[in-house]
Amino acid sequence: MTEAARERLAQIRLRTAAIIPAYREEKHISDVVRRTRRQLDHVLVVDDGSEDATAQRAREAGAEAIIHNQNRGKGEAIKTALRHWLDRQFTYVIILDADGQHRPEEIERFIAAAASAAGPALFLGNRMNDLTGMPFVRRVVNRYMSNRISGACRQKIPDTQCGFRMLDRQLIPELLGGGGDRFDYETEMLIIASRKGYRIESVPITTVYSDEVSNIRPLRDAFRFFKLMRRYSKV
Length: 235
Prior knowledge:
- With about 240 residues, the protein is an alpha/beta fold.
- The chain has one domain: Alpha-Beta Complex (Spore Coat Polysaccharide Biosynthesis Protein SpsA, Chain A), CATH 3.90.550.10.
- It is about 45% helix and about 15% strand.
- The chain has helices at about 5-15, 30-35, 55-60, 75-85, 105-115, 135-155, 170-175, 185-195, 220-235; strands at about 15-20, 45, 65, 90-95, 120-125, 165-170, 200-205.
- Strands 3-2-1-4-6-5-7 form a seven-stranded mixed sheet, with helices on both faces.
- Helix 1 (about 5-15) crosses helix 5 (about 105-115) and helix 8 (about 185-195) packs parallel to helix 9 (about 220-235).
- The radius of gyration is 17 Å and the shape is globular.
């Protein structure tokens, strides 16, 4: 790697902040924050109405923390964080989950992708190159939903269900207008970005599943997904 390339990576890293939406994650959040802080200087946790010590653990580990007074949903937690960073002079934001499913050490892959991007892009983690650790049901659902969402985005996206992603600050005002407030918002982000001319660039990441407890509610969130897809199919 040339000195110029190393300098470009270093500059992008300095201009990148992290967002970690969290709900009842006092068990994992300290480790996730500490590891993220080794990659980036600025880390924000949005505690989405937890009744436990999530926010306290996040602050002790070195993150800023914003607390919702009640649970509003992952989408609203992300929007709160996007508004926070939009008021500051960062070029990119990284979003990753609080439960340890995403490896903060792989943030460097997103920074490298941003450094080599030819045009406006949203960088999205892709776990589909190695499915060893992914439960079978998630694998099937992911493929089905990725096919549907790829159609809505008018570009092929292999892993639309991955929450590990990197956004350009120029896209943030458009994303704040999205109507999703829970897990559907992550899908809506991709549709909005693609329709604003952004490529969805896949960044290979590791599939990690351990003892995390999913907050997804299959019936409720499936209804939200189909409602979202119906709305955007008319646009």
